[in-house]
TrEMBL record:
It comes from Ibidorhyncha struthersii. Belongs to the RTRAF family. It comes from the Eukaryota. Pfam families: RLL. PANTHER family: CLE (PTHR15924). Transmembrane segments: none annotated. This is RNA transcription, translation and transport factor protein.
Length: 224
């Protein structure tokens, strides 16, 4: 909102920056004037702001930084030993045990990072980004650790199989065809076992996600 933006600039100058003398702030305070943009542009030059008038977000960030520096300079003794409210009386042991306790799952950067990882690892998208993060963790633990990679790259040595011990269940009338059919059946069984193993792994991964209840540390209770 243009009016709020202009009021914000005036408040910063009046309360924190105070670059102009009080009697010289008239043009900047006249926020309804058509000439206010020119007054603001002159103000930016006077405070040595490196950004142009069109770069509002950058200008706001820079002016806020200037205001903070000046505020600190005026009250250095007051602020030098200050600690953030969230850091006071923090139990370091608990903090180390739960490093993600204060993670903001609604942060756009967090969501973008989780989505990028999910796309890279070809993980199914989910509305809850925290669930996607847990799925990524499970995949990394089971597939991408050094031990898992080393195990996956090990060459598998085949074991000799006595075909005569495996009953085909039907007779083609040709011994060579019977033997080929037995080999195909054994290969098919091996593929089914491998598929079953993957299914079991998927079930375990899903259970690990849905069986872990969400914890609301603010309420001091566990539940969905």
């Amino acid at each position: 909102d243009e009016t709020e933006f202009r009021n914000f600039i005036v408040w910063l100058e009046d309360q924190k920056i105070r670059h102009y003398k009080i009697e010289d702030r008239g043009n900047l305070r006249n926020i309804h004037s058509d000439d206010w943009p020119k007054s603001f542009e002159k103000y930016m030059k006077d405070v040595n702001c490196p950004f142009k008038i069109q770069e509002r977000q950058e200008t706001v960030d820079w002016l806020l930084g200037l205001a903070v520096r000046l505020e600190y300079g005026d009250n250095a003794d007051k602020y030098k030993d200050s600690t953030p409210d969230g850091a006071k009386n923090t139990d370091n042991t608990a903090k180390n045990a739960e490093p993600l306790i204060n993670l903001d799952v609604n942060n756009p950067d967090f969501k973008a990072g989780v989505m990028a990882l999910a796309n890279l690892l070809q993980i199914q998208r989910h509305d809850d980004y925290l669930v996607m993060l847990k799925a990524i963790r499970i995949l990394v633990q089971e597939r991408l650790t050094q031990d898992a990679i080393a195990k996956a790259t090990q060459s598998k040595e085949g074991l000799p199989v006595a075909l005569e011990k495996h009953i085909l269940g039907f007779d083609t009338g040709d011994a060579v065809l019977n033997e080929a059919a037995q080999i195909l059946r054994l290969l098919h069984i091996e593929e089914l076992r491998e598929l079953q193993t993957k299914i079991n792994e998927a079930i375990v991964a899903v259970q690990a996600i849905i069986a872990d209840p969400k914890t609301d540390h603010r309420l001091g209770k566990v539940g969905r």
